[in-house]
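Task: sequence design from structure.
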C-alpha cells in the first residue's frame, strides 16, 4: 500500500511538472519576438542603430548602447518579404523579394516607407553615390537614380542574367552572384546601358553562387555547399579563381564580408553545430587564406556586416548576434536579439 501511494504521488508530481513546463513553453512561444527569417543586417552610424531585415516580419530597428547591447525599438512592415537592406544617409533601401526596391525615411524613431516599387523582385543591392544597383533573381539588374530618395528613377533593367542573388559594386563594374552561373561582371560606366563584361564559373553545370563582397583586386563569393571562392578581378573582363575554401562535410558558406584583408564568413552546418558559425580568415595572400579564428553558433546563419569594431551576423529564425571583432583572433559576443532566453522560443516557432 505504501509503495502504491508513493508511486501515485510521484506520477501526480511528474504530471504537475510536465504541465508547468508545457504552460511555460506555450506562454514563451506566444510572447517571444517574431523575427522572421533574418537574412541581412545594416548599420546606421548616424543614429547608432542596427537594422535587421526579417523576411515576412519586416524590418526590426535596434538601438546600440555604448556597451554594445541591442535594444529593440520598433518594426516596419509594409508587405512583401524584406530580404536585404543598405543605408545611405537618412534613408534605408530595402530589396523586397516580392515588391522590388523600397525606400524608407529613417530620420525618426519609426522608419517610414516613402516609395516602393511594385510587381518586381529585390534580392540584393549596393549603393554607389546616388545610384542603387539592385538584383532581382530572374529579373536581372535594376539601376535607379536616387538623387531624390522620395522619387527614384529607373535608369535601366539589364536582363541578360540567370538567377541573380547579390551584387557588389566597385568603380565602373558591378560584380554579381548569379546563382547558376557563378560571378558575372557588368560594365556600369554608363548606368543607362549596362553591358556584360566577363564571368567566371565553377562546378560546371551545378554552380551555386549566393552572396558577394569584395575589396581591391579580389571578390569573395559565398557559394553555399560549394564553399567560398576568392576571385582575382585585377582585370574585371577576365576574372580568375585565386583560391577556394571548402566548408567541410554538410557545411554551407552563407555570408561574407571583407575589410583590410580580413574575411568574415558565416558557415552553416546542420549536422555538426561545432562547425556552424563565424569563421575569420587572413587574406594578406588571397591565394592562401589562413584561418584566424572561429566562433560556433546554434541555428542557421546568413550574411555578416561590419561597422568599426562591430560585426553583426544574421542568425535566421534566431535574429542577430552582435560581436566585437577588434581582435579578429578573439571575437567576443556583446549581445543578441532576441536575448538568449527568448531565442529558445523563436526556434520552437520556426
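Answer:
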Amino acid at each position: 500500500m505504501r509503495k502504491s501511494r508513493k508511486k501515485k504521488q510521484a506520477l501526480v508530481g511528474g504530471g504537475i511538472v510536465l504541465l508547468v513546463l508545457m504552460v511555460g513553453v506555450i506562454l514563451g512561444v506566444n510572447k517571444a519576438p517574431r523575427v522572421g527569417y533574418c537574412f541581412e543586417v545594416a548599420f546606421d552610424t548616424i543614429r547608432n542603430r542596427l537594422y535587421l531585415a526579417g523576411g515576412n516580419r519586416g524590418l526590426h530597428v535596434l538601438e546600440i548602447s555604448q556597451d554594445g547591447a541591442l535594444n529593440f525599438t520598433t518594426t516596419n512592415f509594409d508587405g512583401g518579404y524584406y530580404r536585404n537592406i543598405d543605408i545611405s544617409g537618412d534613408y534605408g533601401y530595402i530589396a523586397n523579394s516580392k515588391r522590388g526596391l523600397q525606400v524608407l525615411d529613417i530620420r525618426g524613431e519609426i522608419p517610414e516607407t516613402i516609395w516602393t516599387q511594385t510587381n518586381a523582385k529585390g534580392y540584393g543591392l549596393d549603393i554607389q553615390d546616388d545610384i542603387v544597383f539592385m538584383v532581382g533573381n530572374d529579373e536581372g539588374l535594376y539601376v535607379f537614380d536616387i538623387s531624390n530618395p522620395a522619387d527614384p528613377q529607373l535608369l535601366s533593367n539589364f536582363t541578360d542574367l540567370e538567377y541573380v542573388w547579390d551584387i557588389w559594386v566597385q568603380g565602373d563594374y558591378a560584380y554579381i552572384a548569379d546563382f547558376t552561373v557563378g560571378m558575372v561582371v557588368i560594365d556600369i560606366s554608363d548606368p543607362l546601358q549596362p553591358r556584360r563584361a566577363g564571368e567566371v564559373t565553377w562546378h560546371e553545370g551545378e554552380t551555386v553562387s549566393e552572396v558577394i563582397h569584395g575589396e581591391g583586386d579580389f571578390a569573395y563569393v559565398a557559394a553555399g555547399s560549394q564553399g567560398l571562392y576568392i576571385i582575382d578581378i585585377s582585370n574585371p573582363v577576365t576574372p580568375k579563381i585565386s583560391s577556394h575554401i571548402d566548408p567541410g562535410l554538410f557545411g554551407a558558406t552563407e555570408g561574407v564580408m571583407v575589410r583590410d584583408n580580413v574575411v568574415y564568413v558565416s558557415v552553416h552546418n546542420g549536422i555538426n553545430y561545432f562547425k556552424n558559425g563565424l569563421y575569420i580568415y587572413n587574406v594578406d595572400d588571397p591565394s592562401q587564406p589562413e584561418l584566424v579564428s572561429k566562433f560556433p553558433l546554434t541555428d542557421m546563419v546568413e550574411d555578416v556586416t561590419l561597422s568599426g569594431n562591430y560585426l553583426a551576423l544574421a542568425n535566421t529564425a534566431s535574429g542577430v548576434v552582435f560581436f566585437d571583432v577588434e581582435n579578429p583572433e578573439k571575437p567576443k559576443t556583446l549581445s543578441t536579439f532576441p536575448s538568449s532566453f527568448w531565442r529558445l522560443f523563436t526556434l520552437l516557432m520556426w
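The CA atoms of residues 224 and 252 lie 4 Å apart.
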